[in-house]
Amino acid sequence: MRNPYEVLVKPIITEKSSGLMSEGKYTFRVDKTANKIEIKYAVESIFKVDVTNVRTMNMPGKLKRQGKTKGMTSAWKKAVVTLKSGQTLPIFDE
């Protein structure tokens, strides 16, 4: 297993993900090569909670322009982690 801090890149806090927090679902940007088992282990070991489900999705890069120059942003991976009922993550309570 990899270091849990290498698997989780950062939490994603948007209007949609804030709505999911009331259902016990938390969204993270994760390493592109991480699998569901590594993501579950990372969240459980860092936050000391029980994970019941992990859903992942690959987010494609977007086309960006600056004048005549075209470029792409990096593709990345997103994970939605469901916790056991009654548990919360402290970083999202603020």
Task: Please characterize this protein's 3D structure.
By secondary structure, the protein is of the alpha+beta class. It has helices at residues 4-7, 15-21, 36-47, and strands at 8-11, 25-30, 51-59, 63-66, 69-72, 76-83. The model has no long low-confidence stretch (mean pLDDT 93). A hairpin with a 2-residue loop joins strand 4 (63-66) and strand 5. Helices cover 24% and strands 37% of the residues.
User: Quick one: overall form?
Assistant: globular
Q: What would you call the structural class?
A: alpha+beta
Oligomer category: single chain
**For the CA atoms, what is the radius of gyration?**
15 Å
Number of strand elements: 6
State the separation between the terminal residues, measured CA to CA: 31 Å
Poorly predicted regions are none
Q: Number of helical segments?
A: 3
Percentage beta strand: 35-45%
Q: What topology, given as strand order, has the largest sheet?
A: 1-2-6-3
Largest sheet: 4 strands, antiparallel
How are helices and strands ordered from N to C?
A: HEHEHEEEE
Mean pLDDT: 93
The helicity comes to 10-25%
Keywords:
3 helices, globular, 4-stranded antiparallel sheet, alpha+beta, 94 residues
